[in-house]
Amino acid sequence: MTGTPLVVGVAGSRRDGSYTLKGVRRALAAAERAGAETDLVDLGSVDLPLYDPDRPAAESGDAEALLARMRAADGVVVGSPVYHGSYSSTFRNFHDYCSFDEYEDTVAGILVVAGGGTIASTMDHLRVTMRGVHADVVPAQVGVRNASDKFGADGTVLDDDIADRIDGVAEDVVATARRRMASRAGP
Ligand SMILES: Cc1cc2nc3c(=O)[nH]c(=O)nc-3n(C[C@H](O)[C@H](O)[C@H](O)COP(=O)(O)O)c2cc1C
Questions:
Q1: Is the pLDDT of residue 1 over 60?
Q2: Do 87 and 80 meet the contact criterion of CB atoms below 8 Å apart?
């Protein structure tokens, strides 16, 4: 046994009723069913000033505590709304606080949520910038188009294909994290 993987979900919207948050919650529920422990970082409800390289994390609101939670993760599911064909400023701001220390040896899954139909560029931007901080990004990813048709008010995912895809990404993150943990533990 090499222990239980911890999967952290990051939701990059500040909007009340965020579909991204609903999607990330779904992913974490799937990760739990796959045997992981989970933690949710809802960037809509944290105190995180605009990243300033000259200001220590200790003086940057919740930054230190959030980074400690990220460093504890074996896997993450990062979710962002699509803003102008890319991720949100809320996600980017958090991303700028994070670096190799947070993501080295961390498996990542990607979820993007669009009001319209633009999903590919945002998934690409997340993939390449997560890889830029050495996250091991799983091949599967989820882009939700026309989000208002896909989520119920209670957070239910109304589209079975999207639900399966979200669950699949979470399961891949857990399985890959387990493989990495076993490999670190050795024979
Ligand atoms: C500043 C801004 C830019 C947006 N740009 C796009 C876009 O390029 N393509 C798109 O399909 N939807 C776009 N949308 C719509 C959001 O993707 C949509 O409202 C989404 O549900 C937001 O996620 P949330 O519910 O988690 O906040 C934009 C919304 C905002 C506020």
A1: no
A2: yes
**Fold annotation for 6-185:** Rossmann fold (3.40.50)
pLDDT tens digits, one per residue of 31-76 = 999 999 999 999 999 999 999 999 998 999 999 999 999 999 999 9
Domain ranges of the chain: 6-185
Q: Are 102 and 133 in contact (CB under 8 A)?
A: yes
pTM: 0.97
Ligand 1: distance of its center to the CA of 179 in Å?
35
Return d(Cα 47, Cα 129) in angstroms, integer: 23
Ligand 1 atom at minimal distance to the Cα of residue 14:
27
- The verdict on the CB of residue 114 being under 6 Å from ligand 1 is yes
Nearest to 50, CA basis, from 15, 88, 12, 96? 96
Distance of alpha carbon 168 from alpha carbon 171, whole angstroms: 5
13 close to ligand 1 (CB < 6 Angstrom): yes
